Amino acid sequence: MGAAPKVVLDTNVIISALGWNGPERRVYELCMRGQIELCLCPAILEELLRVLEYPKFKFPRSHKAALVQDLLRIATLSEPDTAPDIVKEDPADNHLLACATAAQAQFLLTGDQHLLQLSRYGSTTICTAAVFLNPAPA
């Protein structure tokens, strides 16, 4: 078996993994088991901490703390130099592209259409968790 694929998870994928039982949860479980190498950067962690506090997400404080501890335990942290100016619709998402580049990630998993429309950035494939788990035959 080859090396675990390096994957950057958008905050929306992490939140979906926590609140719903779909493909995002399966990807998160694969990360926790070490079958996927989770790659994160400080900007993703900062966004996650902010989003976890949104009132619409009623995650218990202990659940949020455990999540962040788990992510820090398993993730490879990258420090991107600068973010590119590619995503015009939501410039804050450029940090995801920078993280993927710095980590040399094969995949960036997201639910954001403006990122999905790119399809690739450098050597990184951009797709949903569902497509990652069930790629179309070549």
Automatic annotation (TrEMBL):
SUPFAM superfamilies per record: PIN domain-like
Biological source species: Desulforudis audaxviator (strain MP104C)
Family matches, as NCBIfam families: putative toxin-antitoxin system toxin component, PIN family
Gene3D superfamilies, alphabetized: 5'-nuclease
Pfam families reported for this sequence: PIN_3
InterPro entries (UniProt xref): PIN-like_dom_sf, PIN_dom, PIN_toxin-like
The protein, known as: PilT protein domain protein
Sequence ranges assigned to domain PIN in this UniProt record: 5-117
